[in-house]
Amino acid sequence: MKLLSLLKKKPFCNDLHFFLIAIVLLMISLKYYPLLILLFLYLFFIYKKTNLMIYISICCLIIISNISILKIIKSNNVKTTYEGYVLDIVDENNYIFKSGVIKILINDYNHNQNSGDILNVEVAIKENEKSYDLDFDYDEYLYSKGISYSAKIINKKFIKSGFSIYSLKNMYLNYLKNNLSEESFNYVNAIVFGNNNLESNIKDSYSILGLSHILAISGLHIIFLFKIISFLLLKIFHYYKDTIPLIILSIFIILIGSPISSLRALLFLILGTLNKKGNIYYTKLDILSISFIIMMIINPYSFYSIGFQLSFLVSFILIFVNDLIDEDNIIKRSIKSYLLIYFGTIPLTIKITGSISILSIFISPLLSSILGFIILPISYILSIFPILDYGLKYVFIFINMYIEGLSNYLPLIHIKAMNIYLILAYYLLYGLIIYSLAKNKNTYFNSLLLTIYLSIIIIFKYINPFASVTFINVGQGDSSLVRLPYNQGVVLVDAYNSYSYLKSEGIDRIDYLILTHSDDDHIGDYKEILNKIVVKTIIYPRYDERFDTLLKDYKNKTIVNYDMIINLNNVRMEILGPINKYEEVNSNSIVFKIKIFNKSFLFTGDMTEEEENDLINKYGNKLNSDILKVGHHGSNTSSSKLFLDYVSPDISIISVGKNNKYNLPNKEIVDRLNKISKVYMTKDRGNITFDLLNGNMWINTYR
User: Fold this and answer.
1) Residues in CB range of 541: below 8 A, 6 or more apart
2) Residue 410 within any structural domain of the chain
């Protein structure tokens, strides 16, 4: 009753957006400290212009306290053994385990656990460090879901079965999985239960077309459900109030794990209903702000979720569409509305997909309406009547084929993901357009500024005079990216766990993909790269017979021999090995040297000492290089003293994963390298990039 009484008085009516802006600046500045100045300037403005300073400060302090408590709980509960219960099943290889106040995402390969099972587990906590600024922050992702750690199971002891709130959901999901086709189940799982397990190529196709919102439980889905429930209650029980539909909807969202976008939509719906009480009314912006504040108090890390950002950003834009667009024609109005949303979400779209499609601006509004009208009802119908899947599954099969085919034909502009400072500059220009629309001023000049800014970001790689060589931190594996000035050439050396980085860098063309040898820790992502990026030529070694099978379906490939020269504009790559055929696959690694400006890099794959000796005998002092990519991740099977004497590097790079099972790099090898060069390891430094311009070189490491 106190809540209703308070809501009738409508505290901070028309002022709640001040809280929202303060929290946004707070959360950004907690991650990017230089931006604290923006927060202080804003608080100074609040102090001078409003009487809200104390209330906003209290709100910010509550959120900071929540973040501190989460960190304290995490740091005080780092153990290797836990007793608790399985809270929820993620998939056949992962489940969420709860022990006291701690939730852990446990990787337990091909487990047979059920929600509620009480276990005693021994785990190895995983370290999820970022490798570069725009890397996916897995820890933040886990925090946004209330999970403290991810871990790998070592041992477990089943104690007894129990009950979890998600037991019913998982039992029903298993029932649907056994009674629906794979295509239908994937859509039902995504749209009804919030688990988007569609194949990556289908998800990418939806993102490229600007339709990924259809696959997430968003405001559209919640309103649809609310109206269906209300309609059924009215027709069957003649119940016309909002209370029971809201309660049913709330229980449903809790059972499916409270996805961020659905929680936002539910809060908006509940607050909108409560807003009818009293004589004063909160605006839509007020209600959005209250929803935002509640979610931030519950879990501040939600802010860093892309789903959270997109959900609130789109909702924020939609609130002002009616005021900003003075257009009677429904079609023109819809197009202008979509353009506002499209350009308002471009930085986030680029972060997700690494690209934008101009044509999707014209296609997406129509497709969104049609597909939403088809996919939503069918998914909910099949979730209740799976027997109807016999005919309806073909709808999903056709949609998958159509979406994937259409996305493949759309020309894409690949763009490097923007850092926080570029994003802020973008939204400053976007805000000027919104301001012009609100004041009924001409928007052409501001629109031109935004277009020029976006164009510079798109073409930057073509005007960038720097060359770069990046040793990508891929864990226990190898992958390096060589880029020439003005986008004149791109070379990828090995392809393990590197596609995400290439996408974030806006790489749309690789001139040479050099696969040094066929071990999985060097070629892991090669299929995804070949399917999604234009690769002009694949290079692989003569004596690695496994490639005959792996690359049989690809035509643009070249077998290389030693003494072969590959020219890429003004840069030469000299293939030095393998010279002979060896029994050991690692010994058959491609070894090559590339000189950019006046700096030479020697790449050695996983070559062993026997290949090193052959190289010494044939090339001698020609092996001398400024930077050495150390062979075989610093193993003692390579990097002999004699070989290092001939190479004589100034800098040695070891690509190696933390806490790997091979205990690499070998201490003796590291000591040997330290005596002649400065040693950088990806496990400690993250991505290691050499930027080169004329005779100058700069070394940039993420950590």
Assistant:
1) 516, 517, 547, 559, 560, 578, 588, 589, 590
2) no
Residue 66 shares a structural domain with residue 98: no
The 10 Å Cβ neighbour count of residue 395 is: 16
Is the pLDDT assigned to residue 1 strictly greater than 50? no
pLDDT tens, 310-360?
888 888 888 888 778 877 777 777 777 878 888 888 998 888 888 888 777
**Segment among 104-108, 210-214, 252-256 with least mean pLDDT:** 210-214
- pTM for the predicted model, two decimal places: 0.89
* Residues facing residue 94 across a β-bridge: 91, 107
Shared-domain flag, residues 458 and 590 = no
- Cα of first residue to Cα of last residue in the chain, in angstroms, is 53
Q: How far apart are alpha carbons 204 and 63 in whole angstroms? A: 34
Give the phi and the psi of residue 245 in degrees, each rounded to 5: -55, -40
Full strand arrangement of the beta sheet holding 467-471 = 557-560, 534-541, 509-514, 490-493, 480-483, 467-471, 688-693, 696-701
Could you give the CA distance from residue 9 to residue 598 in angstroms, rounded to a whole number?
72
For residue 267, is it within any domain? Answer: no
Q: Is there a single domain that holds both residue 495 and residue 594?
A: yes
Beta partners for 97? 86, 104
432 lies in the same domain as 515: no
Q: What is the rounded distance in angstroms from the CA atom of residue 196 to the CA atom of residue 110?
A: 20
Total domains in the fold of the chain? 4
Type of residue found at 465: P
Residue 18 sits in which domain range?
12-75
pLDDT tens, position by position, 630-651? 999 999 999 999 999 999 999 9
